[in-house]
Amino acid sequence: MKKLSARRRHPLAAVVVLLLALAATGGLYAAFAPASKAQADETAQSLAIDEGKKLYSVGCASCHGTGGQGSSDGPSLVGVGAAAVDFQVGTGRMPAQQPGAQIPKKKVIYTQAEIDQLAAYISSLGAGPSVPTKAEYGPDGADIAKGGELFRTNCAQCHNFTGKGGALTHGKFAPDLEGVAPKHIYEAMQTGPQNMPSFPDTTLSEKNKKDIIAYLNAVNGDDTESPGGLELGGLGPVSEGLFAWVFGLGALIAVAVWVAARTAKAKKS
Asked: What start-end ranges are recorded for coiled-coil regions in this protein (predicted)?
C-alpha cells in the first residue's frame, strides 16, 4: 500500500492518467463517431454509380454495350464524361427511338436524379468533361458583344446569326437554339454532340462559353423584338436584303407588266 501511494504521489502520475484518458476517449470516438463528410460523399457516389449501372443496363446497354465499350449500333461511352450524358439524356436525345442521320431532341423520359446516376456510372468508366455549374454558364460577368463576335466566328455557319438553326448535308441539321437551357448549350460546346465539333477550354475558355450563352439569351429572349419587323429567321442583313430585292423587284416588274397590258388593251379599244 505504501508503494502504491508513493506511485500516486509521483509527479508524472497525473500526466500518465491524462494520456490514458485521452487515448481511451479517442478510441471510443473513432469507434462510434459518424463517418466523415468525405466518407459520406464517397458512399453516396458509390451508390449513385450502382444505381446508374442498373439504369444503363436497361436503357442503354443494347446499343452501347454492357460495359459502355460501344457496338455497331452505338459509339463507345468510355471517356465521354458526365456532361455528355447530362446533355444527351437531359434533352431527350437518348435513349434513341431509332437510328438515323441525326437523333432529334424529344421528351425527356428520365428524372434529373436518374440522369445524375447515369452520369455517375458513365464517369466511372473513364474521365471526361463534368457537368458545369451555374457559375460557369450563368449570365453574371458575361460580355454579350464578345459573345456575339465569338458566335458569328465559330457557330453561325451552321446555326445562323441568331441560333435559329439550319439544314446540313445528308439529312443532318443544326438545331434551333432558342429556348435551350444554358447548361445544355455549355455542355454541347464542351462535348460536341453528333455533328457539332467540340470546343474545349483550350479552344473556347469558360469565359468565352459564358459570353456566347449570354449573347444567345439576348437575341432569343422573350422580350427580344426585331427593330426591322419580320426577322425572316434571323438570317442576317445580306440574306434579308437579297430577299427584299428579289421579291420587291419581282412585285414591281409584275405591276409594270400589268400596267403595260392594260394600256395596250385600252389603245386597241
From this structure: none
Cis previous bond, 95, omega within 30: yes
Q: What is the pLDDT of residue 230?
A: 55
pTM: 0.71
CA distances from 141 to 1, 44, 137, 206, 208 (A): 79, 34, 10, 12, 11
Domains of the chain, with CATH numbers?
37-125 (1.10.760.10), 134-225 (1.10.760.10)
220 CB neighbour count, 10 Å cutoff: 17
**75 to 63, 64, 126: CA distances (angstroms):** 8, 6, 14
Percent over 90 (pLDDT), the chain:
51
What's residue 100's pLDDT? 80
Reported as a single tens digit per residue, the pLDDT across 38-60 is: 677 788 889 999 999 999 999 99
Residues 6+ away with beta carbon under 8 Å from 104 = 93, 175
What's at 45, amino acid-wise?
Answer: Q
Residues with Cβ < 8 Å from 110, sequence gap 6 or more?
55, 59, 89, 118
Mean pLDDT of 239-256: 80
